[in-house]
Amino acid sequence: MLEVRGLNAWYGESHILHGVDFDVREGEVVTLLGRNGAGKTTTMKSLMGLVPRREGHIRFQGQETIGLRPDLIARAGIAICPEERGIFASLNVTENLMLPRQVAPGGLDLATIYTLFPNLKERASSQGTKLSGGEQQMLAIARILRTGARLLLLDEPTEGLAPVIVQQIGRTIREIKARGFTVLLVEQNFHFAATVADRHYVMEHGRVVDMIPNAELASSMDKLHEYLGV
Would you call 157 helix, strand, or coil by DSSP? Predict the structure, then answer.
């Protein structure tokens, strides 16, 4: 579904990504693992065209997207849930959910979303920023499920959340995978990543340095600890 080859990215004079290569197959959950500053979030933003300068190849379902504007990338079927969540303070939960336009058939309707996220149903008329951090994260994920996008980019969805909420986010990711969505996940918590992902790409200094299938994660722990410094 997604093929990235030789991806370079810059912020001004700062060269952040140095020839990033990886693939995501349809129906997979794939994680980008790495320390802070490894280039994971910049990779996500590059996929959406949100980095000022990028070079290389990004092919989504066979279409080259490296030169497309962010709105055209979104209409092609890629959606991002950013680390900062982007909840609109002046809108309630239902209004936040309904805000993004649908780009394709196959998005989840409100009833299905509220089944997946019962907390949001209970808070449907609450202002988005009155929600807890965990509820805001659920809202940010739920909002892109409505759009019909088939590739979902989730940037640090568990950061700063209580363990019970992390478990709920994990259940949600497994459920949306079962419904046919494809997920690229940036994550620092590889213990969480191991519960949801099929494969893990490890990033260091703006490069992908390894790929570890989830089935080989247990046997790769020493190597992973060295990569991640944990």
Answer: coil
Q: What is the pLDDT of residues 184-194, one digit of tens each?
A: 999 888 889 99
Q: Give the mean pLDDT of 93-121.
A: 89
- pLDDT of 230 above 70: no
Q: Is 172 helix (H, G, I), strand (E, B) or coil?
A: helix
**∠ Cα 105 107 109 (to 5°):** 120
Give the whole-angstrom CA distance, residue 65 versus residue 49. 8
Please give the full DSSP string across 107-148, using - where no structure is assigned: PPPHHHHHHH-HHHHHTTTSBGGGS-HHHHHHHHHHHHHTS-
Q: Which pTM does this prediction carry?
A: 0.93
According to the model, what pLDDT value does residue 218 have? 84
CATH number attached to the domain at 24-50+69-228: 3.40.50.300
Count the neighbouring beta carbons within 10 Å of the beta carbon of residue 22. Answer: 18
d(CA 116, CA 134): 14
Query: Which of 7-16, 48-57, 72-81, 185-194 has the lowest average pLDDT?
Result: 185-194
Q: Is 82 left (phi over 0), alpha (psi -120 to 50) or beta?
A: beta
Instruction: Sketch the domain layout of the chain as residue ranges.
Output: 24-50+69-228
Reported as type and span, the H/E element at residue 224 is helix 221-228
* Residue 135, φ and ψ in degrees, nearest 5: -70, -35
